[in-house]
Structures are given as structure tokens and as C-alpha cells.
Design a protein that fits this description.
Strand order of the largest sheet: 4-10-9-8-11
Number of strands: 11
Number of helices: 7
Largest sheet: 5 strands, mixed
Radius of gyration: 19 Å
Order of helices and strands: EHHEHEEEEEEHHEEHEH
Distance between the termini: 23 Å
């Protein structure tokens, strides 16, 4: 079980001191794990009851904390479906999938996770890279943003030879259904509210911020700095059909290529947001 602090954490001296007293961790360790404005992992506990008790202690001190199972990152019910187009009004958005369209009120949007998807990036490659980086930075004692699709299609991350494609993406998570609507900035038909003179990544950021403002939800852009990003290991293929408001198969469903690291992180962020919303209702 992962015990997380929500982005409301400010990182003040008082908060860090309170966390150190409750968790038994050193202030230095807490500052390493937790950053203001970002979901962060306070403790990793094997026992659900211990995690529940720690969340209760943190809540009593005024923190907004949740406990989630790390296996959520590999949940086959949380299937990723690529959008072909998106239309918006003041009250709702229309998702255009491969064979049908769906009208969704903004109130159904839970959160948005924005980042760069590295198709073919594996959990193992990401873990090895992270360990190597830590070894290089530890003392002895102790994106793609261009507008050219051809350039992006041959772009790799420089470490994992399995990565063949990198693109700006955003995952739309919903309150009542488990499947995820993913936007590939290079291929989405953007709504008219987004100026076309900007490049694909900039258009995506404009759209994401507009949607978040309409739905009053957070946008997470913190895969590279959140300690939650180091708890995505253990992914397996997502193959089963999600339950509830099932969209038609995506044109990419048949592909075995995915970004296991980003996919798992996106699911974990959504689950944390869902748990936090349930606590405040």
C-alpha cells in the first residue's frame, strides 16, 4: 500500500516536523520524497490496516492523505483508448472514438495527466535507468515539443532501445468509468477554441488547461519529479474490456507497444484523485 500526500502539501517547516513525528522519518528523507504541489509517497506499507491508520493520523493533523494499492498501475480494467477528435461546448465535451462519439459533461472529468509517452518504454528499462542515475549522483559515502511528426516518430529516449516513438499526450480520467481517454497531440483533431498557429504540444497544453478550468480539476505534469513515479514497476499487458460505458476498440488496441511507466503513473494519479474526492464528499 502506498500512503500519499496530496498536492495541497506546502512543504512548510511545521508540516515537515509533524510528518517526521508521525512517520519516524528524518526531515531530509521527507523533503526528498515530498514536494509542494505534487502527489508524493510518504510511506510504503505492506499491511492495509497500517496504511489506513497512518492516513487517519495524517488527516487528524490536517493533511490530505490517501492510501492506494500500487497494483492499480497495472489494472487491466483501466484500459487506455485513444481519441481521434474532441469537441467542446460550455457544458460538455464530445469524445470522438474510432467508431462512435460520446458526450460527457465536464463534471464527469476526474483529473488530467499530461506528459510525454515513450512507446516501447518498459518498467525494467526505466528502473535500471533510475538506479544508474542514483548511483551517479550519490556521494561515495552515503520532449518532444516540435511540430514535425516525422522527427518525433524516430525519436528515442537515448537509454531504452525499445523506445521507438515519443509524443506529447494527455490522459483524461473520469469519475464513474475506469477506462482512460488518451490524446496523442499529433493526431487529435483539436476543437476550434485551440489556436492552430501553435505546435502540437502547445495546442495540447492550451486544451488541457481549458478543460481543467471548465471541470475544476487538477492537471498533473509531475511524472519526472513525483516520488510516485518510482512505484510503477511490475506492469503487465492490459487486455481485458473495461466495465461501464464501454467505448469501441481503439485503432491502437491491437498493438503491443505501450509506455508502461507513464501508463502506470497515470492510473495511480487518477486513483489518488478518486480516493481524495471520496473523502471530501
Amino acid at each position: 500500500m502506498l500512503v500519499l500526500l496530496s498536492p495541497e502539501f506546502s512543504g512548510s517547516e511545521l508540516q515537515v516536523a509533524q510528518l517526521a513525528q508521525v512517520t519516524g522519518l528524518l526531515p531530509y528523507d521527507l523533503r526528498t520524497r515530498l514536494r509542494p504541489g505534487v502527489w508524493g509517497v510518504v510511506r510504503v506499507l505492506a499491511d492495509f490496516e497500517q496504511a489506513r491508520l497512518l492516513v487517519g493520523q495524517l488527516t487528524a493533523l490536517g493533511f490530505q492523505a490517501v492510501a492506494i494499492d500500487s497494483a492499480v498501475g497495472q489494472d487491466p480494467e483501466r484500459k487506455i483508448v485513444y481519441l481521434r477528435g474532441l469537441e467542446v461546448t460550455d457544458a460538455e465535451m464530445t469524445l470522438r472514438l474510432s467508431e462512435r462519439t460520446m458526450s460527457v459533461p465536464f463534471g464527469a472529468l476526474l483529473t488530467i495527466v499530461r506528459g510525454d509517452v515513450h512507446m516501447g518504454r518498459s518498467q525494467r528499462g526505466n528502473t535500471i535507468g533510475a538506479i544508474a542515475g542514483q548511483l551517479r549522483s550519490t556521494p561515495p559515502l552515503g520532449p518532444w515539443a516540435g511540430s514535425g511528426a516525422s522527427e518525433a516518430a524516430t525519436m528515442g529516449d537515448g537509454r531504452n532501445p525499445g523506445v521507438t516513438d515519443v509524443f506529447a499526450a494527455a490522459d483524461l480520467h473520469f469519475v464513474t468509468v475506469p477506462w482512460i481517454a488518451r490524446i496523442d497531440a499529433r493526431e487529435l483533431e483539436f476543437p476550434s477554441i485551440v489556436p492552430m498557429q501553435s505546435n502540437a504540444a502547445e495546442r495540447l497544453d492550451i486544451l488541457v488547461d481549458w478543460l481543467a478550468n471548465q471541470a475544476h480539476v487538477r492537471v498533473d505534469r509531475h511524472l519526472r519529479i513525483s516520488s510516485l513515479g518510482s512505484h510503477t514497476v511490475g506492469s503487465r499487458g492490459v487486455a481485458s474490456t473495461p466495465q461501464g460505458s464501454v467505448p469501441p476498440p481503439s485503432r491502437r488496441v491491437g498493438s503491443t507497444m505501450s509506455d508502461e511507466h507513464f501508463d502506470a503513473y497515470s492510473r495511480l494519479i487518477a486513483e489518488a484523485e478518486r480516493r481524495q474526492r471520496a473523502q471530501t464528499v
